[in-house]
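Bumping my old thread because nobody answered last time. Still need a sequence for this structure:
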């Protein structure tokens, strides 16, 4: 039953896209290509996040370094991460700052 619902949902979404126009992701990708004609999703995902994302964003998040997060994140991402850090501090919880494993990145959406 779950597999049927997933297939039906995908089909219904595709039908809606044809009737009502582009999806939010398709529109965002079109805008991105206008701003950055050389942009490649494959190259973006192939970028070594262990040398950039991990120490800058994840490291700051695990340490609770809100100022470093403010410097490296856009407003929406910063807001989510800051709230999480503040909740941890309010509960007096500490995160283990060691990053033991990072999987390859996956694109979940474009906005």
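Sorry it took so long. Here it is:
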């Amino acid at each position: 039953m779950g597999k049927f619902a997933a297939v039906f949902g995908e089909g219904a979404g595709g039908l809606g896209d044809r009737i009502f126009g582009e999806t939010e992701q398709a529109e965002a990708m079109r805008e991105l290509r206008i701003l950055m004609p050389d942009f490649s999703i494959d190259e973006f995902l192939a970028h070594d996040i262990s040398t950039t994302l991990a120490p800058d964003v994840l490291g700051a998040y695990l340490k609770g370094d809100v100022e470093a997060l403010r410097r490296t994140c856009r407003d929406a991402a910063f807001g989510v991460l800051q709230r999480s850090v503040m909740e941890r501090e309010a509960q007096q919880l500490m995160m283990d700052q060691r990053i033991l494993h990072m999987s390859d990145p996956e694109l979940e959406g474009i906005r």
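Residues 47-104 form one domain. Let me know if any region looks off to you.
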